[in-house]
């Protein structure tokens, strides 16, 4: 985007006025619009077109926004191409008369019926459970990851301390685990669900591609600044797949963006500070391909302490052999293939394999369209504050967790993780559209942080830590979480669902 100052000449009815009277100064903003990645036809690259903004339209949208532009499609003589080829060549631009951001338009056009439905859902005692079940419904299990993604989508509250120091409110998330555990599918789901996302891969991303790039404008021959993925994802989410494949130099370049949420540039005489107020959700593989529970977290991942401490939640995904879970997973995948076959869609009488657990979970979800509106509404209007919470419990937990991290050898717990607990509690309060953070929000944030810490330990150490911190682990399930299922097709089986874990026993 280039900002120029230009002269304008206004034409009167009887011809051109006197130059002193008609001449004025005004700002011209030249920007480039591009097709959204989801609408590009197969086998093509996104098309782009230059637009010219004047007056009040200049500061309406930022780089990375999805916009609707109304304007005049016109031609202009390109002097550089004319001099190069020796004959007149015209370039096409759009002179914008009106521009608006799609996300704001969706929020403004949110009907009263949807707002009333969102407020009704927020009063349900198990709305957080419904939201977590609605995250990536086509992926089986991984309740801890879905909880972390839900918290990151809603986000905490940023604090500005007297205009001198800013504390971020976005929740960064790292998914680390074995191949074939749907890490990339989670990222693709977030890209389609959240209203502002930028997706990139570690191997195809460089330092300038993530932060900012300085290059010469082909027309004015001036040095211009071009924002990277983190700048384009401002006030949104930046998704980075194959995070472990990035070069160490490229990973170091995003340190400032992950904590201070700004990018400082000093190149080619341009000194600037760009905003990168976005959450980062990254997926990575262990060093040896598969996660080894006999080794500590630091031995399984090729990431340094400075970058790991900037992630609020660490999710370790292990592909473990469990006959009961494997049976349910295979049933879920078969039913998914049968249900989503092109010839079986919208047809009645299609037979599915019996899967009571999936049926129960499907009935306890909300629609994806309503979930998008719920997230948009909560992030825009709900600003929860810390009030009457058990501060002693929170500080004592941090003290004990920090002491345990020094002795156990997992990831190092710092004051950043204490702030992470506060952010997660605020995000959980947003699910209920509450103005204040309550103790149950703190309890869930502590349990998520503790789960991340336990998953990063060796198998032998994790058991000891889980027993030691059992007083902080509060299973936030309603009274119907322990259900007794009896199957008509298999009367000799007794299936008990305990907090998402299925136990199959023979009936006596």
Written account of the structure:
This protein is of the alpha/beta class and 508 residues long. Mean pLDDT is 77; it is low at 1-23 and 475-508. The chain contains 20 helices and 23 strands. The protein is 37% helix and 25% strand. α17 (391-408) packs parallel to α19 (439-455) and α18 packs across α19 (439-455). The strands form 8 sheets. The chain has a 5-stranded mixed sheet with strand order 1-4-5-7-6. It has a 5-stranded parallel sheet with strand order 11-14-17-10-18.
Question: What is the strand arrangement across the widest sheet?
Answer: 1-4-5-7-6
Radius of gyration: 27 Å
Shape designation: globular
Number of strands: 23
Distance N terminus to C terminus? 73 Å
State the helicity in percent bands.
25-40%
Number of alpha- plus pi-helical segments: 20
Amount of beta strand: 15-25%
Average pLDDT metric: 77
Runs in which pLDDT lies below 50 for 5 or more consecutive residues are 1-23, 475-508
> For the report, how would you describe the main beta sheet?
5 strands, mixed
Derived from helix and strand composition plus strand pairing, the structural class reads alpha/beta
Summarize it.
Helices cover 37% and strands 25% of the residues. It has 508 residues and is of the alpha/beta class.
Keywords:
single chain, 20 helices, 5-stranded mixed sheet, 5-stranded parallel sheet, alpha/beta, 25% strand, globular, 508 residues, disordered C terminus, disordered N terminus
Secondary-structure topology with pairs:
Layout: E1 2-8, E2 11-12, E3 15-16, H1 19-22, E4 24-34, E5 48-54, E6 67-77, H2 79-85, E7 90-101, H3 102-108, H4 112-122, H5 127-134, H6 143-154, E8 159-161, E9 165-167, E10 173-177, H7 183-193, E11 197-201, H8 207-210, E12 212-216, E13 223-227, H9 229-232, E14 237-241, H10 248-252, H11 255-259, E15 262-267, E16 270-275, E17 279-284, H12 297-300, H13 305-308, E18 313-317, H14 323-339, H15 356-363, H16 368-381, E19 385-386, H17 391-408, H18 415-431, E20 436-437, H19 439-455, H20 459-468, E21 483-486, E22 493-498, E23 501-506
Parallel strand pairs: 5-7, 10-17, 10-18, 11-14, 14-17, 19-20
Antiparallel strand pairs: 1-4, 2-3, 4-5, 6-7, 8-9, 12-13, 15-16, 21-22, 22-23
């Amino acid at each position: 985007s280039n900002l120029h100052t230009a002269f304008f000449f206004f034409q009167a009815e009887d011809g051109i006025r006197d130059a002193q009277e008609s001449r004025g100064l005004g700002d011209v903003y030249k920007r480039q619009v591009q097709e959204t990645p989801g609408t590009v036809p197969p086998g093509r690259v996104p098309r782009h077109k230059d637009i010219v903004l004047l007056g009040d339209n200049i500061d309406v949208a930022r780089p990375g926004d999805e916009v609707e532009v109304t304007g005049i499609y016109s031609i202009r003589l390109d002097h550089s191409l004319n001099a190069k080829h020796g004959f007149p060549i015209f370039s096409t631009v759009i002179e914008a008369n009106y521009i608006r951001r799609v996300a704001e338009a969706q929020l403004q056009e949110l009907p009263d019926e949807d707002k009333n439905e969102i407020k009704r859902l927020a009063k349900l005692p198990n709305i957080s459970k419904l939201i977590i079940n609605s995250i990536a419904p086509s992926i089986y299990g991984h309740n801890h990851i879905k909880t972390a993604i839900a918290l990151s989508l809603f986000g905490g509250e940023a604090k500005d301390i007297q205009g001198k120091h800013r504390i971020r409110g976005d929740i960064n998330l790292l998914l680390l685990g074995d191949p074939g555990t749907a890490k990339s599918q989670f990222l693709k789901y977030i890209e389609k669900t959240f209203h502002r996302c930028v997706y990139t891969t570690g191997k195809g991303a460089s330092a300038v591609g993530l932060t900012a790039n300085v290059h010469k404008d082909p027309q004015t021959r001036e040095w211009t600044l071009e924002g990277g993925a983190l700048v384009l994802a401002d006030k949104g989410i930046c998704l980075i797949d194959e995070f472990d494949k990035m070069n160490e130099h490229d990973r170091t370049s995003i340190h400032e963006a992950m904590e201070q949420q700004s990018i400082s540039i000093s190149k080619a005489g341009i000194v600037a500070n760009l905003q990168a107020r976005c959450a980062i959700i990254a997926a990575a593989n262990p060093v040896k391909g598969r996660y080894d529970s006999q080794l500590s977290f630091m031995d399984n991942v090729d990431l340094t302490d400075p970058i790991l401490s900037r992630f609020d939640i660490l999710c370790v995904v292990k592909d473990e052999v469990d006959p009961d879970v494997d049976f349910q997973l295979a049933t879920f995948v078969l039913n998914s293939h049968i249900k989503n076959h092109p010839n079986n869609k919208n047809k009645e009488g299609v037979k599915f394999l019996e899967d009571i657990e999936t049926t129960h979970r499907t009935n306890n979800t909300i629609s994806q369209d309503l979930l998008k509106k719920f997230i948009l509404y909560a992030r825009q209007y709900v600003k929860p504050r810390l009030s009457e919470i058990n501060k002693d419990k929170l500080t004592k937990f941090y003290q004990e967790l920090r002491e345990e991290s020094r002795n156990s050898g997992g990831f190092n717990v710092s004051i950043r993780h204490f702030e992470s607990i506060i952010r997660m509690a605020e995000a959980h309060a947003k699910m209920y559209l509450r103005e204040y953070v309550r103790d149950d929000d703190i309890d869930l944030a502590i349990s998520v942080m503790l789960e991340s810490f336990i998953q990063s330990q060796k198998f032998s150490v994790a058991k000891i830590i889980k027993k030691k911190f059992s007083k902080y682990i509060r299973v936030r399930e309603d009274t119907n979480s322990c259900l007794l299922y009896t199957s008509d097709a298999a009367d000799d089986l007794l299936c008990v669902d305990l907090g998402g874990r299925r136990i199959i026993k023979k009936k006596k």
